[in-house]
Specification:
It is built from one helix and eleven strands. With about 200 residues, the protein is mainly beta. The strands form two sheets. Strands 1, 2, 4, 5, 6, 7, 9, 10 and 11 form a nine-stranded antiparallel sheet that branches. It has a two-stranded antiparallel ribbon with strand order 3-8. Bound molecules: zinc ion (ZN).
């Protein structure tokens, strides 16, 4: 499925014009058991990963956006902070069902020391429980998932880590980075497409 992150005005930066022979490499994952990342939903719940890293050609997790996860979940599902940080961006004005190409994402961006930032995409209308400038701990309530922006009309939470704030500076300037999670089953190369992961 095509999948744009950030706001639609930047859609051209995320266009997938790759052909079937294009091969991308996703590597450089750090030890999952000591990762600063927790699954972005409450302990005890589990969701299936639709797109993961290095999606096949024609999907959104390609190129500068090749690292990232789409967790399939109904709109309105509680989501939590995956990694502690400071809230840099909140957009929650858009409505579920306003999907590509006319719709815009709701999102939250959380920054870390060193300049990296996590993007949580496709939140529901008024779906953010955090505000810009707020310092948040891993596991804290972030808000509720939704179906806004380029979801392929498939409600899910998009989570990706970037080298800088992709909403402020654009995904092309802030390429995505590998992420592993410490509170689930072994994931030495990140989460796998089509698998379900429970938060422990
Ligand atoms: Zn995605």
């Amino acid at each position: 499925m095509r999948h744009f992150v950030g706001f639609a005005a930047l859609g051209a930066l995320f266009a997938c014009s790759t052909g079937p022979s294009d091969i991308e490499t996703c590597e450089g994952f750090t030890d999952w058991q000591s990762s600063p990342y927790f699954l972005p939903y409450p302990v005890g719940s589990s969701y299936v990963v639709d797109q993961a890293n290095c999606s096949p050609p024609g999907n959104g997790h390609r190129g500068v956006n090749r690292y990232g996860y789409d967790f399939l979940m109904p709109a309105g599902t509680p989501i939590t902070v995956a990694r502690a940080g400071t809230v840099l961006q909140v957009e929650e004005s858009h409505f579920d069902g306003e999907v590509a190409a006319t719709g815009f994402d709701n999102f939250v961006v959380i920054g870390h020391a060193g300049g990296t930032a996590d993007l949580y995409g496709h939140l529901t209308h008024n779906g953010a429980d955090v505000t810009v400038g707020q310092v948040v701990a891993a596991g804290a309530s972030l808000g509720r998932s939704g179906n806004t922006g380029n979801t392929g009309n498939k409600p899910h939470l998009h989570l990706s880590r970037h080298s800088c704030d992709p909403v402020a500076l654009g995904n092309a300037s802030c390429p995505s980075l590998p992420v592993t999670f410490r509170n689930t089953t072994a994931n030495p190369a990140g989460l796998s497409r089509g698998s379900r992961y429970q938060a422990f």
